[in-house]
Amino acid sequence: MKLRLPRISNPFAALYAEARLTKEIQRSLYFILLSNICGNLFCQVGGSGTTAMIQLSNFLGAGDFEYGLITGIPLAAAILQIPFSVLVTRTQKRKKYILTYGLFSRALWLLFGLVPFFVPADPEWLRLWTVIFLLGISSCCGGFINVCWAPWMADLMPIGIRGRWISRRDAINSVMNVAMGLFIAWILDVIGGPIKYTIVFLIGGAFGVFDMLAFIGVKEVYSTPPQRTSIMKSMKRVMRDKPFLQFSIFWAAWCFTANMSGMYISRYCMNEMGMSNMGVTIFGSITASLITVLVISRWGRFLDHYGCKPVMLVSGIVASLTQGFILFMYPGASWPMFLHNFIGAAFWSASNLAATTMQLSYSPDDERPAYLAFFSCITSLLGSFAGTMVGGAALDWMAAIGIPGNVGFDRYKILIVVAVVLRFLTVILLVPRMDNDREGTVGDMFRDFGNVLRAIPARVRLLRAIAKSRRSL
Questions:
Q1: What is the distance in angstroms between the CA of the first residue and the CA of the last residue of the chain?
Q2: Phi and psi, residue 397, nearest 5°
Q3: 353: pLDDT confidence band, cut at 50, 70 and 90?
């Protein structure tokens, strides 16, 4: 008897057929998908707040403020994206910039794990500030990456399939996160000494390099011809675009309140509550990745059908509250971390998906690099970076006045309460003011969802009847 292997269907083929994309464009989108997957795996090591960065920061002796600085530098460097976007618009050399500055930015991460071996431990600050210096150079050069790849993808992909394409990409990334997260956590827990940082950052840096190299196979497509523009002219146009400006202000406030406490949750659970790298990974990123796989495709369909505003409002309200589970954290407990990520990821994924789609929808083709650069700058610098630094400074200040960090209602939980309240207010006050890119409303979304729920009993009865008829044959 010949065994037949199960066929794995292409999750993107139907979308490409619906949009009637040429083979060359489809091939380019597959290379962008490969780039996104490798970039996501790189972020499992080099992203802000990862277990690898937390452990390296601890090894280098970083306090809360220094840790905030390490996580915040890539965000602050986003200000360089504004002049870079003007350069990209004038020259239209995305591939050149990705394969030079972007590649150099990612290659520097290969050196992070070598710092303990090649940089003296005396004076004790030298290693820490060597990592900060490397991170700063990498972040500055990396400013070209966002202003190149996001407009590039938008020029290749029709708007009608973006929500579903991005949701399916995110589902694949979530599956890859599980394997990568477990592997990195195992290395950090099992291997002793600084050699584990060398291994982890060599792996992460390699994926970062592959992320950039994948763009070799992407066709360089532009929806508009090169333009002679200036920073002031581009920024004036952005500032006059009320829908885009409202969205940018909302997302900056969202990032500020989320990062003010969110950047310190994993570090709190590891350093103060005694969770292992594997524990934080399983109940943190692994849990979030698995639930994202289950729900992201549904959110993608909601986006394409109802628009971004209803999805952002519903998901934002729930996501803003989920950090509250950490208030029940105590030494040895893991269930608050699990619920924070299990329930949170079901709605964070929708918020992030809506935000990505709104960036592309609100930005015009002829000025998309400038729009996205402005968005990244204001949300990264005034949002994530400012939130991270304010959170770190607040934690250091509370420690200085004697508020503990590991007993009862400690300083971390005080910070979480403030952040949750501010984040909730941000959603209910700012999202209703934004424009929607579709005709759908929150009422339409809930009404259709209710119809689906009401249809479940009838479908169950039908399935039972079919099963009963089959048994009687």
A1: 28
A2: -65, -45
A3: confident
Higher pLDDT, 225 or 348: 348
Amino acid of residue 194? P
Q: Are 134 and 100 in contact (CB under 8 A)?
A: no
Assigned token pair, 259: 């990062």
Distance CA 243, CA 65 (A): 35
pLDDT in tens, 31-55: 999 999 999 999 889 887 788 888 8
- pLDDT higher than threshold 60 for residue 341: yes
Size of the chain in residues: 473
pLDDT of residue 189: 87
Selection from 286, 243, 230 nearest residue 85 by Cα = 230
Geometric angle at alpha carbon 57, from 53 and 61, rounded to 5°: 175
Q: How far is CA 466 from CA 454, 457, 469, 471, 472, in A?
A: 20, 14, 5, 9, 10
All residues at 6 or more sequence positions from 223 whose CB lies less than 8 Å from its CB, including other chains: 154, 155, 365, 366
What mean pLDDT value characterizes the chain?
A: 85
How many secondary structure helices (H) and strands (E) does the chain include? Answer: 23, 0
Using the predicted structure, report yes or no on whether residue 437 has a pLDDT greater than 80: no
pLDDT of residue 463: 65
Say which residue the tokens 């002219």 belong to.
Answer: 233
* Tokens encoding 338: 């699990």
- In angstroms, the Cα distances linking 199 to 48, 111, 134 are 19, 11, 18
Can you give the pLDDT at residue 3? 47
Q: Quick one: which of 139, 135, 138 has its CA closest to 77?
A: 139
Q: What angle do CA 143, 364, 438 make, to 5 degrees?
A: 115
CB contact at 8 A, 158 and 365 = no
Question: Omega before 123 cis (within 30°)?
Answer: yes
Give the C-alpha separation, 215 to 228, whole Å. Answer: 26
Token pair of 285, please?
Answer: 């990123």
3-state secondary structure of 282: helix
- Kindly tell me if the per-residue pLDDT of 1 is higher than 60: no
φ, ψ dihedrals at 293, nearest 5°: -60, -40
Q: Where are the alpha helices (DSSP H) in 142-161?
A: 143-156
Residue type for position 297: S
CA distance 417 to 266: 16
pLDDT over 90 for what percent of the chain? 28
- Helix, strand, coil fractions of the chain, as percent rounded to 5: 80, 0, 20
- Report the interhelical angle of 411-430 vs 308-321 (nearest 10°): 160
